[in-house]
Amino acid sequence: RFVKFGGGVSTEQVEWLDRELGVCKTNGEKAIICSHLCIHPQTCVPTCLLYNYDDVLHVLHRYAPDVVIATFAGHAHHNGYYQDEFGIHHRVCEAVLETEPGHDCHGIVHVSDDMIEIRGFGTFASATYNLYS
Question: What average pLDDT does range 47-60 have in this prediction?
Answer without folding.
Answer: 96
